[in-house]
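Question (not urgent): is this output format expected?
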Amino acid sequence: MMSAIGLKDRKSFGVIYLEPSLTNGFVRMLYPNSPRHPRQKYLLTAKGQAMYQKLFNQ
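Got this back:
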């Protein structure tokens, strides 16, 4: 995700992009009880998919 938007600082990515996306329900964690899980992934929710469609499939 970071390379796709051109960021290198992991802390900034988390604060500016990831935390708000999680809080607002656009993405969810694959392993919500273990945020530092070695295979952690972030998945779009239905709300996130709707926003994606709205932004990129006009």
